[in-house]
Amino acid sequence: MIIHHPILGPRDAQEFVYLGDASLINRPDGLTAGVEAFYDYLYNRGNPAGEHRELWYHEQGDRSWLVVTRNTVTHEIIKVELARDVAKAAGRTK
Amino acid sequence: MSQKNRISGGQIDRSKVLTFTFDGKTYSGHPGDTLASALLANGVRLMGRSFKYHRPRGPISAGSEEPNALVQLRSGARQEPNTRATVAELFDGLDATSQNRWPSLAFDALAINDRLNTFFTAGFYYKTFMWPASFWEKVYEPIIRRAAGLGSLTREEDPDEYDKGFLHCDLLVIGAGPAGLMAALAAGRAGARVILADEDFRFGGRLNAETLSVGGRTGAEWADSVIAELAALPNVRLMLRTTVIGAFDHGIYGAVERVSDHLAVPLEGKPRQTLWRIYSKRALLAGGATERPIAFENNDRPGIMMAGALRTYANRFGVTVGERVAVFTNNEDGLQTARDLVEKGVDVVAVIDARPDGPLLPGIRHLKGAEVVDAAGRLGLKSITIRQANGRTETVEVSALGVSGGWNPNVNISSHHRSKPVWSEALQAFVPGEGGPQGLSAAGAAAGQMSTHAALEGGQKAAIAALAELGISAKADTVPEAEDRPLSITPKWYVNAGKGRAWIDPQNDVTVKDIKLAHKENFTSVEHMKRYTTLGMATDQGKTGNVLGLAIMAGLTGQTIPETGTTIYRPPYTPVAMGTLAGRSRGKEFKPFRLTPSHKWAEEQGAVFVEVGMWLRTQWLPKPGEKHWRESVDREVLATRKSVGICDVTTLGKIDIQGTDAGAFLDKVYCNTFSTLAVGRCRYGLMLREDGMVFDDGTTARMGENEYVMTTTTANAVTVFRHLEYCRQVLWPDMDVQLISTTEAWAQFSVAGPNARKLLEKIVDQDISDSAFPYMAAGNITIGGLRARLFRISFSGELAYEIAVPTRYGDALIRRLVEEGKAFDAVVYGTEALGVMRVEKGHVAGNELNGQSTALNMGLGKMVSKMKDSIGMVLSQREGMNQPDGYRLVGVKPVDPAATLTAGSHFLEKDAKPVIENDGGWLTSKVYSPHLGCDIALGYLKAGDQKIGRRMRAVNLLAKTETEVEIVSPHFFDPEGERLRG
Fold first, then answer.
1. For the whole model, what pTM was predicted?
2. What is the ipTM of this complex?
């Protein structure tokens, strides 16, 4: 696969490490959310046949975490964003 | 050494004679021959035995689809089993043997299987060998494995090298027949970056095998002229002997180039094969078509082959397979074989044409509406039985028969992404379907463009269309003149006569009967039929026979062929050697290895090294006279505890963390608090995963207001860094914190023991007295003006420091420490002594940090702060992870000090049976403590904190050991920590 890195352009998928569902961005706050909320966050994820937003890490590159929107059936990559931008847009701060 | 079946013509170099052997007998051939063509020229038709019935077999093809003529090539370490004789290029001294036979190819004892064929029908594995169950492993399987086999492995190391390479192009053209050549020409002339790859050792594809003309020249001459033009273009790369094995995602193709297989031994410095990864913007499948047979009784006799192959041997190699030849066809193309052979002076005794109508071939006995019903000649074809349109049968003596049931486009690569081929009624064959690999199109026979003219035109058009999508404009040149014969085919899959067996998949011995049986037993879906009968599961992957099986099943179920459907193809297109996939990643080069800064010094001392991840670390340093590793390790431990020891700890991960939020960031990633740590101090940190399990541990020092240095375990250096980047970018993107791994930047040594300070005082420039540099102090110092770092931390339980210098000074520092240490009888210790001392001290390491343990399990539960949010804090509070009878870290001692402990042993109460219900936990780490004079261990014991002082048994059923043990505190040595504060 080839991932079009928003900063570095087309890169071979071998340079990346895969983590999983990009919903991991939405981590609850540990001081206010309980065990149930964290359980949901960590374990209950979708497994769609089709478009899937997922986290990839450019370990053998610039160390950017990326959100890659990929069709799990065709492997077509629809969109690649910096995870930091996605996280900020989702309201994450410090 | 006469080549009795050699006839005129062909693309072989008759001026040179090559000598080779097959089953020990010497033969001759010429450059340009394959092993199969040379053997056929010498009158050898019998080349192998089938997989199941051990039937005598000869080649049925002249290409890579060959299922029968599999031989063992070369001998000694270079011996290679299952090589297709039809594509093995002949070289002088080639040495081949037949396989799957004993004692000889002509007389094979296991041919008895053929007589027992009624037992070996489809599904026989599932029906036979069932009872008793205990017989399977010990009796049935060894017998089956011995009987059903192909070639054998040499079990010697492969002496050759294999490479991997990467290529980029605008257009990859797969196959260099008429379509591929025209495509490459159009793209090459337009200036596009082109790769033209062909599996053959000569460009031209079928043009080399035919007598037809292209643009007024022979096909082969035209191909040569195109190749000459392409070779002169700098933007075109021509790749001979290169098989494109698969389509992968986003325009990436795998290809195997057989760089040296046509030579006895690879040239100096050359690999045997190269695995290429080709990044293409567009690709064109121009892989041609494969002829398929018509099944009839005993159609597997040596001498019966595809009509097109018979023609290839005659036209390209100057070989006739027999003196008297017949052709059995259901389509127009089969007639060409008869014409070409007559032209070459071969006696064509009959053309058996399944089609009832149409013009007759002049001057040849051309039987319309006829079929071949049987063949005789066990070790080589002697005669065929023909049934004419009027029902009359006759037996005709022949030594070769060409069969043509039509041509299957080579759609394989187009369906590598699960796209199903579609049925063409006009061609009676599958052609590439929609939804194939993105950017791939097909042209020529692979796309069902069966005439030479159609292929030439199709190739050019496809290239122009593909390049247009890239914004490259290619010109449509005049297509050279060539035959444009319409296809005339009448479907004919098998001859329904008699009770004998008619082969569909000759390698796996799948016959028409097996398909009928699968149907009778309701394995009618193509996927079921394939697995039940093993049709298409041989090394040729059903290239010739699959469609026959489908068509016969369709006939039985009353469905159409498109309704019946087809299985899909997967990479690789042809078999690939494991060595090619491994490339240079084998033996010591399987992965890179890393050396510590003290490696050179340690090597000079005769150190023993151990692999720790990618690192090679000193395991122990034997002194002269020490015969057992324990002698060295005991000495290193005792000397360290008595005076001072030095150990290279560079491999621990080091991460510089800077920024105004660095402290707050560490509070998030560690379960304990770091923002309150004073500048110039360090602290032990425990890192959890979000699921509450322990991830990693290490000490982290605060070097400045906004600057920390974290250490990680050697094993997790990379994953912790990845995790920190994840936390920083994904979870808390607004934190002002920057990270850099400095594992390679600093050489770091542990200096431990009562005299550690005295030794370091001789080296460092600063005051490091206990008051100036107390326990858990950290700071920047200098060594003779050179910048360095000092941490007063201890893994051994001794007064200890870790001292770090820029890596390039690491070698100098170890030499200086050893030199200055002589005054104190200092030792350098390795990872074994390190392990002994940490177990004596009760510190957890890799065996305890096993990814399934919590802070509570390790006796560190109180470290998890609930006053702040940190990774894993919430889920570490789950009920199941906080049971009072859960595992706790304990120390273990044998009751009898002379007894030994075995790591991995399980704890049992004194009288408990060794069954899972009674399992109390297990020993994680075991060492011999020279300090205590006995074996000691750490372990996880259920409710272990409440069992201190209890006597139990440590039982290891695998090692067959059992020891009575006492459960003790894990802190065997200096439990109050007086020594490390000294």
1. 0.92
2. 0.99
